[in-house]
Each structure stands twice: as structure tokens, then as C-alpha cells.
User: What shape does this take?
Amino acid sequence: MTKQNISSRIVLPGRNDPCWCGSGRKYKVCHAQIDERVEQMRALGHEVPRRDMLKTPEQIEKIKKSCAVNMAVLDEVTAHIREGMTTAEIDRIVRETTKRLGGIPAPLGYEGYPYSVCTSVNDQVCHGFPSEKVVLESGDIVNVDCSTIVDGYFSDSSRMFCIGEVSAEKKKLVEVTRECVQRGLEQVRPWGFMGDMGQAVNDHARANGYSVVREIGGHGVGLEFHEDPWVSYVTKRGTEMLLVPGMIFTIEPMVNMGAPDVCYLEDNDWEVYTEDGSPSAQWEIMVLVTQNGHEVLCW
Assistant: This one.
């Protein structure tokens, strides 16, 4: 996703009219104060979300059902992933489990992507193709990125796995990357900024001697696979989009043991590798901005 100017002025309903979110409550006791504050922040020059980026209560409940299936699929991968299996076997587990649970693998056919999941091993940063030729070996680290559609609603999360006897250096990378997600999550609160989260992620990675990929980031999700906003993890506190209740987006930094530079595999324009061949790790969660803080929907 490329970042766009996505702020646009909203038309406010009458205070006694039903709220635009579909709650059935009057606007004045539902979203009026939120909308007024958004407009105040816009007037101060801040980037604010469009109304269609704020999920309604009904939409959130349906997105949560998709998330439940997505996590169950990743639980099935967790139960079976092992040394000696191919990444194609992971793809089969994801495809069959998703179907059995009433979902559709969101990656399959997305902009031509030919598999049901992404499996990125060692120096693969993201979008790794499952393959019968890629056999997981002791010492490997692998990211399994799973995305699901249930009744037209989308979910997205990924987990890292250490295969067999993994070096202390790789284990630290995996653990610090997970800590980066947590540090970022702690900064997600209404009326903060996306940059608060981004700086927390980047600061923790750099403090441990790592770098964060700049060109590839997170995204909004729920009604579509990839929505606005584009989410960077190399931004500064107090910058980027205002965080407003109802926003749902992913926190999924790609953390490299070496330099942040990446390259694409020429054969398919999907698979991304570290340019210097160093290992890379990624965890991904979906988070909802709430009235009082945040709620993790998918992990």
C-alpha cells in the first residue's frame, strides 16, 4: 500500500438523529463528541481518519468472528509445524482448516498471489511462497502469515516459529520483534497518533541493534484485506494519523538483524528478502482503538 492523503471533511447528522454508526442511539449520545473532536484536530492541521475507516459495532462483531477463525487456523499450524515438513504442508493445513471452519483464505488469488498463506523463512522478510522444495530444518526461523475471510469480513495475523535448535542470536531477534509489537501496542490509545506507536517499535528494535523495514508496513483491515491507513514503524511520536475509536489496523513490524534494506525475488515480484542476507522476523496482530484504549482482535 502507498500512503495517500485520506482526510476528508465529514457531514454531521442532527444531534437527535440516529447515529451514523448504526448503534440505534441518538447521535448526540453516541458519536457526536468523537466527531467534534476529530474536526477540532483536523482544524489544527492533523491527519484524521475518514468516517468509513471507523468500524461500526455491527462490523466489529463480524470482524471478530473472522479473527476467531484466523487464530484457530494459526493454532492448527502451531500444533503441527516441525522440522522436516515442507512449507507446502503448512499451506495445505491453512487451506483445509480454513475451509473446515467456514472461512476462505484471503491471500489465495489476491492480486494474483497463488497460495493460501505466506511462509517466510530466515532471510525472507515477507510474502514467502509455500513450496514442496522448502523443507524446514533445525535452526530455521519461519513466519506464518495467515489471513481469513468469514462472511465477507477480513482478519490478518502472523506468528514466528523457531524450528529445532535455533541459535541464541536468532531466538533473540524473534523475541525482540515480539517485544516491539508489544511496545507499539502500549501506545495505541484514542487521540494519540500512529507515530507514537511507530516510534515505540523502532526505538526498541534499534536499542537491541536491529533495524526496521521502511518500505513495507501495516494496514487497516476488516471490510477489505488491505485498507487505509498505511502503517509505518519508522515514524515519530506526535505525527501521522490521529487514532480514533473504531479504527482497526495491524501492527506487524519486519525487524532485520542487519540493515533495513530489502529486495524482491525477480521471479515473482512477491517474495521479499533482506538485501544483506541477514535474518528477519515479524509478528502481526490486529488492534481496535476503543474509547478507553485498545483491544487486540487477532494474534
Q: What stands out?
A: The longest strand covers residues 141-150.
